[in-house]
Predict the 3D structure of the following.
Amino acid sequence: MNPNGLASDPLFWVVAAASLAVLAILVIGIGGFAKGGDFNRKHANKLMRWRIGAQLVAVVLILAFVWLRSKG
């Protein structure tokens, strides 16, 4: 598959969205940690769990994308 074909692949966009979701959760978590205070006490562990779950989904999607594209 040529590089221009990636933009037309819906699975590529799903993988990209999942990766951006992980990045957004990470940035919110780091920002809360840096600021500290009440937000960090209330939400730090929840954000960590969300990030780990989002990373799991993103990695599975990336592996599925690579596997499906290697087949044909």
